[in-house]
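Example for tutorial group B:
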């Protein structure tokens, strides 16, 4: 199936505002919206129908949003050539971070899994924090899912766990089933959203994010979509976050290391 038109419909949305995408997801059946006292404090949650549902997450803002200092509201078009989406204007990118993620959620809207669209991720995770602080019952519901997947990383075969407390078993599951390997990089909304369950940020094929030269590779985006469809069609197991808080586990490792040093021999006597 050719997904070019779906992607173009999201990528051509004005860079300086996520209003159009917010309205698009808000119109889905069962959608729950939340709006705070500032433009970036908002979200759309569309609950899935499966009992073993996974939460899929993306954000509607770009680094060129009008609420940020680096705003762009001029003329531009999205060019698609040789399987690559790019900007016609050298003064801005295409907003694939994270409009490409929103497009993936749109394609997964009939999967039976839940969708969460946030705003204000780029400079403070405002939408996610607003949800956590003011919609506590909904926040608990999010953490009753099997696990969370953010679709907001650059490379098709890479994933991030930055700032998310996950078990080794979950990381092994992601690599073995989805085929994504851990990368190092910045965190995203999962740092706020994941409390009781594990979560991972998957690569969706964009390059040069936050730069005017930003581009998106269709083949890599479609590869992630294909993996999502294949894996999420299967029965899902719940992956709970580690029981002990990270700081306690760190302290335990330090104590264990100190004990091993004390018990270690000071060296063997020469013959």
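The residue assignment follows.
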């Amino acid at each position: 199936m050719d997904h070019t038109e779906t992607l173009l419909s999201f990528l051509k949305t004005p860079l300086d505002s996520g209003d159009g995408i917010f309205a698009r997801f808000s119109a889905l059946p069962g959608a729950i919206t939340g709006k705070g006292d500032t433009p970036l404090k908002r979200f759309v949650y569309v609950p899935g129908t499966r009992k073993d549902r996974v939460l899929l997450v993306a954000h509607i803002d770009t680094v060129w949003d009008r609420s940020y200092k680096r705003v762009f509201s001029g003329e531009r078009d999205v060019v698609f050539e040789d399987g690559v989406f790019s900007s016609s204007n050298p003064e801005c990118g295409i907003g694939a971070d994270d409009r490409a993620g929103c497009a993936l959620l749109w394609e997964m809207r009939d999967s039976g899994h839940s969708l969460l669209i946030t705003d204000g991720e780029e400079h403070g995770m405002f939408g996610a924090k607003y949800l956590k602080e003011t919609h506590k019952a909904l926040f608990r519901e999010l953490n009753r899912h099997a696990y969370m997947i953010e679709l907001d990383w650059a490379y098709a075969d890479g994933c991030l766990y930055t700032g998310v407390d996950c078990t080794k078993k979950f990381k092994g599951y992601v690599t073995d089933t989805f085929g994504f390997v851990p990368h190092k990089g910045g965190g995203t909304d999962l740092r706020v959203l994941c409390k009781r369950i594990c979560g991972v940020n998957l690569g969706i094929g964009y390059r040069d994010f936050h730069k005017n030269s930003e581009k998106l590779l269709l083949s890599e985006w479609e590869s992630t979509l294909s993996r999502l469809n294949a894996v999420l069609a299967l029965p899902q197991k719940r992956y709970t976050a580690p029981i002990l808080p990270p700081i306690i586990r760190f302290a335990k490792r330090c104590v264990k290391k100190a004990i091993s040093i004390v018990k270690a021999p000071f060296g063997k006597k020469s013959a």
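The first helix runs from residue 4 to 11. Compare this with the pattern of hydrophobic and polar residues in the output above.
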